[in-house]
Amino acid sequence: MRQLANELDVNNKTVAKAYKLLERDNVIESKGYRGTFVHPEAKQHCTFNLNNWLNEQLTDVVQTLKQSGATDSEIRIAFNQGNDTANRG
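RE: above sequence
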């Protein structure tokens, strides 16, 4: 991963995160010391639309919060605080 990060001129953590996401979505698979390979069914797994999924998840959460009485402003502030906390961790 270090070599790829150097070749792409990006942080090692960026490459590691990309690998984790690709592995999560069954696009690649890690075989320990033998390396990382394209998953045999990678093509079928590439149909996942992360943006649609994120929008669905956020819509559900926002609806739940609004039903609980939270205002748009309160939701926005809480989201930004949660995002800031996640970025620090």
